[in-house]
Amino acid sequence: xxxxxxxxxxxxxxxxxxxxxxxxxxxxxxxxxxxxxxxxxxxxxxxxxxxxxxxxxxxxxxxxxxxxxxxxxxxxxxxxxxxxxxxxxxxxxxxxxxxxxxxxxxxxxxxxxxxxxxxxxxxxxxxxxxxxxxxxxxxxxxxxxxxxxxxxxxxxxxxxxxxxxxxxxxxxxxxxxxxxxxxxxxxxxxxxxxxxxxxxxxxxxxxxxxxxxxxxxxxxxxxxxxxxxxxxxxxxxxxxxxxxxxxxxxxxxxxxxxxxxxxxxxxxxxxxxxxxxxxxxxxxxxxxxxxxxxxxxxxxxxxxxxxxxxxxxxxxxxxxxxxxxxxxxxxxxxxxxxxxxxxxxxxxxxxxxxxxxxxxxxxxxxxxxxxxxxxxxxxxxxxxxxxxxxxxxxxxxxxxxxxxxxxxxxxxxxxxxxxxxxxxxxxxxxxxxxxxxxxxxxxxxxx
Length: 447
What we know:
This protein has 447 residues and is of the alpha+beta class. The protein folds into two domains: 3-102, Roll (Ubiquitin-like (UB roll)); 112-413, Glutamine synthetase/guanido kinase, catalytic domain (Creatine Kinase, Chain A, domain 2, 2-Layer Sandwich), CATH 3.30.590.10. Helices cover 35% and strands 18% of the residues. It contains 13 helices and 15 strands. It has helices spanning 3-14, 41-47, 107-120, 164-178, 204-224, 269-281, 286-289, 295-299, 346-362, 380-386, 395-403, 406-432, 437-443; strands at residues 19-25, 31-36, 49-52, 66-71, 77-78, 88-96, 124-136, 183-188, 194-199, 228-230, 244-252, 255-256, 311-313, 320-322, 335-337. Strands 7, 8, 9, 10, 11, 12, 13, 14 and 15 form a nine-stranded mixed β-sheet that branches. The relative contact order is 0.12. It catalyses: L-glutamate + NH4(+) + ATP = L-glutamine + ADP + phosphate + H(+).
C-alpha cells in the first residue's frame, strides 16, 4: 500500500468519515457515484470495486458487463456541503476491466492516454478554465415566455449590494477552496443571472476532476440559495451563451515551450504548431467540445462566440486567442481555446484539444495568418478569402465531420467513438422531429 492510500485510510479514521463516494463519469460527462462504507476502502484500493458497466452510458455490452472502479487516492477530499457531522468524502476512479487493465471506455482514461503521449514528446501541459453558468429562480419555465427566469437582471461585472449572486459566488468559492480547488476570479457575466468563476491552472487531468467537482458544488450551493444553476450552453435566445474558455500552456521541464523572446507576439514555433493543430482539427472534434444540440445555438449565437476557425492576438472573436504578453511573466505565455462550452465532458474535450495540438507539433503544421479583425463583422466573401472555414453549424454537421475523421477515431478508440456517435445520432433524430414554439408562433396563424 502506497503513502497516499495510507493517508486516505488514516484520514477516514481520524475524521470519522462515514461514507466515501466513488466518482466517475460516463462518456457524455454525467457524474456517477456509489457510496462505499469506510471499512471497504482498503479492499477497493487493493482489488477495485465491481459494478455493472452495461448500465452506464458507453461502458460495455451486456455480455461484457463486469467492470471495476479503481479509486485514485490523490483525489480524496471531504465534501463540505455534506456537513461536519458524519462527514462524507469522495475519490475519483479509473475504470478497469476484470483483469485489471485500463478500460478503453473510460473518459478519464482517454485523457490519461493523451497525457502519456505528451510526456513521450517531452512536454507537460497546464490548463486553466473560465467557467460560465446561469443562476435561475428554478428549473421551471415561465409559461408566458417559455424561458427560465434568471435570479437578477444585472450585467457584466455589476456589483449590487445585497445581490443574491454575490453571496452565492462567495459560498461557492469558499467551498471550492475547502476541497483544494484554487480560484483566480469570480464575477457577474453579461447575461442576467449569468456568472463566471475562473479556476487556477493545473494539469489537464486535475483540471477535469476539478470541473466535475465545480459543477457539483455550484448546483449544491444553488439549491441552498433556493435557486437552480445550469451549465446549458444557451438557455436564452437573446442573452449570451455559457462558455468554458480554457487556457493551455506547454512546458519542457521548467521552461515555457510557448514563449520565444523576440518572436511575433513572443510566440514560439512550438506554440505555432500547437495552434495550427488545434485549428486543423477543431471542426472534427466539435462533437467533444460542443456535444449537444443546444451547443450550436451558443456557437452561432453571436456575443463573441467563435463561429469560424481562426486565431488572433487578443482577438476575442477568434477560436484561438493569444492573450497579451506580460514582460515580467514569461511563464504565463499561453493560448486560449474559446470553442468549449460549459456542458462539455472535460476529460474528452481536453483530450481532443491537447491531442490536436500535439499532432500539430508532431507534423510541424504551419500556422495560418493571424486575424486582427472582428470575424463577426466580416462578410462571407472576406472570411472565405482569409481562409476562415466555419465551425459546424449544427450537431448534425458535427456528427458528419466526426464520422469522417481519422483523428477522432484514433483519439477515442473504437468503443468510446462508437458510443458517442450512437448517442449523438439519437439526440439529433429526437431533436429534428420536435415542433418548436418558434414554428408555431410563426406559421400556425399563416399556413
